[in-house]
Amino acid sequence: MFAVIKTGGKQYRVAANDLLKIEKVEANVGDIVEIGHVLAHGEGENVTFGAPFVDGALVTAEVVEQGKNRTVIAFKKRRRQNSRRKIGHRQLLTTVRISEILLGGAKPTKTAAVKAPKKEAKAEAATEAKAEAAPKKEPKAKAAETAAAPLFKAPKGEPDDLTVIKGIGPVAAKDLAEQGIITFAQLAKLSDKDVAKIDEHMPFSADQIKDWREQAKELAKK
Q1: Which CATH class is domain 148-221?
Q2: Average pLDDT over residues 81-89
């Protein structure tokens, strides 16, 4: 028995166990694919034609290989126009072996590959990946907490008005207070290491901080 099928915009005459190269079908090697566009079938001189397809007819095929056809070059040139265009195309192909030609709504003995379990497996893998990635968020949270902690421990008691120091305005005074610096004595006792720390984490230069430190020393004596 033979059948005439249509797939990928082309027609093929096939019989059982025929090897056929058709335009790419999304399937893995070993999968069974179903081709429902059967234009005709017959045996010998007894041929049945569809309108356009034969009702209840089905052809199944096993995927043997996924590959590519040879490269086809299309070259176009326009005379006296200095126009040339070269385009290459390499068609993706699937090699299949015809398994069965079924008529009258008969069901294939080999069913098409079920793709649902693959999705479930991917979903499970994604869930496991998320579960593994979840603990990694803890160090980030700890880092955020560390970054939010002030650079210095604020002393007890009333804060000084740091805006008295030349170069420290209300915004700068607020930034310093958020980092635990609220008195002249603190500024006066800053070491060079502390200055470098402020320079790294705050929008103030080392020269600014050193200048404020010298002014704070004079104010702390009063």
Answers
A1: mainly alpha
A2: 87
